[in-house]
Amino acid sequence: MLEIGVKNRNPIEYALILLMFLAIIYATYNTLSAFLGIFTFALIFSVAFSSLFEIVTRSLGGRRKLVAFIYALVLLTIVALPFVYLINAIGEYAHKTQVVVAEIRNHNVPPLPEWLGGLPYVGEKISGVWASLEKDPETTLSLYEPQIKAFLQRLLSTGGGILTTGLELVVGIIISAVLLFMGEKALKPVQLFFSKLLGDVNGNAMIDASGKAINGVAIGVMGTALIEAALAWIGFAIAGIPAASGLAAVMFMFAVVQLGPLPVQIPVIIWLASKGENGWAIFMGIWLVILFVVDNVIKPILIGKSGKLPILVLFFGVVGGMGAWGFTGMFKGAVVLAIMYTMFRSWTYGAEALKVKADGKKDQDETAQQGIS
Question: Whole-number mean pLDDT of the chain?
Fold first, then answer.
């Protein structure tokens, strides 16, 4: 064991040791901060799918390596396909825009597509700009060149952000497969650290609270994303939208990263309106309200039910965490408030309350295990 020093140190030396320790922690955080998104996704997936992973492992005779490989393959396929589709679409749109601008510069203005000129609210303005391009391309382009450049830059930056998130998701899934394969071994160092720091009862209570918070948010987010994707597919199929399955997959991805149904649903409504299908456009608008209800009402309920912590603790953690840190803040905020809630219980009721609760959970787990076997 590493000995920090002898007992007869003076307060200044203790302060210097503490400062050095804090500096090392700060440097470690800065070093690993680039991987926080990856680690967050790895924790989300490993905690959310741990129960299912163990069930499948038992049904396959304890072949953890095979189950981990199947898990990673299936999840990577589900996650990767929408990202590839989106990145290809963004690249294609950027290329088409550059080609159109080059043709206009050469006085070869293509005809305006009918659906573009028939768009509600903006169709007339687009038609007017296009008529100006046909009369005097160079002058009109010079007037709108800053907007075109800003649009292309925004398109490319959006594609870069989506690509970064996609890579984080892919690497996070691979790491989560490794964590699930390791099982309890992956959790052992964390348990030892908190037991050394806070004692066995409080340390295990902190880990249990963190796991419940992550599990609640993960299942709430994943469950909501699956419900939204299924409802979106039903709506697209009823309205006769082409590529309904692909759009539903994109909806699932957007729901996971907390962008909601708007980025998929609004373009579909505009497309239907541009084709003169006003009835179906209104139908999809009503369907959008249903998706909003799922996203903003059912999600907190799922989070509270699956987290097995007071729903207000998780609700304030999720909402406050998202406001402070964005998407990953859902999990950070939930974990922080879950730990604070556990510390409050330990302080007000004593460690014995946590121990009784943990023993009760252990008895329930043993009873459930006997029932399965």
Answer: 75
CB-facing half-sphere around the CA of 256: CA atoms within 13 A: 22
Single pTM value for the model: 0.62
Encode 6-66 in three state secondary structure: CCCCCHHHHHHHHHHHHHHHHHHHHHHHHHHHHHHHHHHHHHHCHHHHHHHHHHCCCCHHH
With cut-offs at 50, 70 and 90, classify the pLDDT of residue 304: low
Distance CA 325, CA 274 (A): 38
DSSP 145-211: HHHHHHHHHHHHHHHHHHHHHHHHHHHHHHHHHHHHHHTHHHHHHHHHHHHHHH-HHHHHHHHHHHH
pLDDT, tens digit, 9 for 90 and up, residues 113-128:
665 666 555 667 777 7
CB 226 within 8 A of CB 65: no
Beta-carbon contacts of 43 under 8 Å, excluding residues fewer than 6 positions away, are: 176, 214, 331
Query: How many residues in the chain?
Result: 373
Q: At which residue do the structure tokens 């902190």 appear?
A: 206
Which token pair is 147? Answer: 């907007």
**Most trustworthy range by pLDDT among 39-53, 61-75, 269-283:** 61-75
Whether 120 contacts 274, CB under 8 Å: yes
pLDDT band per the 50, 70, 90 thresholds, residue 158: low
CA torsion 18→23→26→32, rounded to 10°?
-120
